[in-house]
Design a protein that fits this description.
Layout: E1 12-13, H1 22-30, E2 34-35, H2 46-56, E3 60-64, E4 70-75, H3 85-96, E5 100-109, E6 112-121, E7 131-143, E8 148-153, H4 170-179, E9 184-187, E10 190-193, E11 196-207, E12 213-222, E13 228-235, E14 244-249, E15 259-263, H5 267-270, E16 289-293, E17 305-306, E18 312-314, E19 327-328, E20 332-333, H6 342-361, E21 372-375, E22 385-388, E23 393-396, H7 408-424, H8 432-449, H9 451-456, E24 463-464, H10 466-469, E25 475-476, H11 492-510, H12 512-522, H13 532-547, H14 552-561
Parallel strand pairs: 15-20, 18-21, 21-23
Antiparallel strand pairs: 1-5, 2-5, 3-4, 4-8, 5-6, 6-7, 7-8, 9-10, 11-12, 12-13, 13-14, 15-16, 17-19, 22-23, 24-25
Helix pairs in contact: 2-3, 6-7, 7-8, 8-11, 11-12, 11-14, 12-13, 13-14
The structure holds calcium ion (CA) (3 copies) and zinc ion (ZN).
Amino acid sequence: MRRRRIRAGCNMRVGAKMSRLRHYIVIAVMLTSVVVLVAGADPLDPKEIANFTQQFGGDWTIQFDQAGHVRSLAGRSTKMFQGHETEVIEKLLRLFDISKVKLTETTESIGGIHLHYEQVVENSALDPDGRPIENRPLIVSVDRESRLVGAATSDRVIPGEPKGAFYKNKKDFEKRLKQLGSHVLGFDGDGIQVPHFEIRDGPILFAKDDNTYVPAYRVWVYDDQGRARFEVVLDASSQSIPPPVETRELVWDAVPWTRGLVFRPNPRVSLRDAAIAFVDVPSENPNPYFPVFLPRLNPPNAHGQSLCGQYVCVDDANPAATEVMLTSSGGNFSTTTRGTALLPSVMIYYYIDGVQAYVQSLGFTCLANRSIKADPHGPDATRNAFYHFVDGTLEFDTDGKIYAGEDADVIVHEYAHALQASAAGARYSSNRQASAMREGFGDYLAMSYLEKENRDVGASGFCYGEWMNQEGCSRFIDVNKTIESFDPKADEHPNGTLWAAALWRLREKVGQQVADTLTLESHSYVYDKPSFCLGGMALLSADQALYDGHHGAAIKSVMRGMKVFENFDKNSDRKVFCDTRMIVATEN
Ligand SMILES: [Ca+2]
Ligand SMILES: [Ca+2]
Ligand SMILES: [Ca+2]
Ligand SMILES: [Zn+2]
């Protein structure tokens, strides 16, 4: 085994100061574009190889692919590379059945230098002078005595123009990604929400698995801790969600950033099909299953990854249902079909984690900030869900057809009860108006938090629980009704839609962030069993405490419009009388 001119410092980029390599750099400049007509034989004519060895000398080991194409060769030419560069490269291109390459990089190792080429497609609409395809390389290795010692290439790209319109401008593409809804990037042919992304490079040309190529952008995806976790190359010719052409991990040995499939928020909304039944959910795309990241999961235990994390622990404890598969050794909870507790389990984790993160982003760090236990398959054989005040746990049930946890409306509504109980204990119960405000807050938070998911597909959020119900909305939040529709004999859920409507009207005036903040804050300002009237007053107090009363006029206008304030109905069953007056400070 001989080894020539051993020296330290492998894999250095060739720089201008490295004078002993200057002649190679000159070669590199000469070879920026080399064109060779494609050889006729396919697969390769054995004569080509004989011809090559005759011309350059030496014994060669040659790697072929399944179709009989040459993919790499190793040996040592007797002929010097220097002085015959064009001849050697042309011959290699003929062997590899490549028409044109462009030199993009030169690196050095102790054995010699390595010329990195990319395949070029001429007359591309992107670049008339020819732009390299970024992921179809040819590497040529030359030793320090200027003998060819190796060459290797990836698949040959299929020539042709990129099809269709595409985003040539980075800013336009970035704008489009943001339009698709807070950082939606393509994975598995679907969109996925990521905490943060950054376009690193583009437009570039990138070959797909089938060896056709597309204009693309190279994007870094950051996790919730601000670390770049993935490099994704996105197809910029897509006018919908740009599908990824390639995904590469950027943090190695990291705890897997676990992914799962969820409905967003449910199939009737995302498929824009108001009647699709649970038995007809398609498994092939376009299907209503969307891959999502599941942040803040605990590290995998001995049994693999489980759906237990910082803000929610999906716990199939009461009773344990044997069909539930709550662990995943691969860090991936993706499944293609509904029908077991796995899909609702992933959805319960995803939405509760997301709502808690959102609530904290508003500044509330003490509202249900714990790993709340949620049973995806509770003991009730009904299509229903519950918040248990006594032990602070959530329960989602199934009638054997639909799991309540398959409907994002229901998950957010139930979790809203946990948030409210953190601030107000059991004060929002017993009394009809207090209970109605409790249920109304649940419906409101579902509408408010899921508004973006509904808006992305042009749907309205006023239909609550349409997936769980299957026969239409579980409840319809009619924003044109007022407290005059309050029925003291009715259930707190339909009455609750009136309070949900009031909060929604406030949201339309002051925006999501302020309305959600005021509502969450107001729960701390009421005594036991508050009336609607006190609910409105609590919003005013919260606004004084947080915003110096800046939104007082909006709150009053909404409460008057809803007939909550200035309601002089003295019916003793309804108890909605509410007389509020403004007393202005006087100088003495
Ligand atoms: Ca899908
Ligand atoms: Ca269970
Ligand atoms: Ca809905
Ligand atoms: Zn409820």
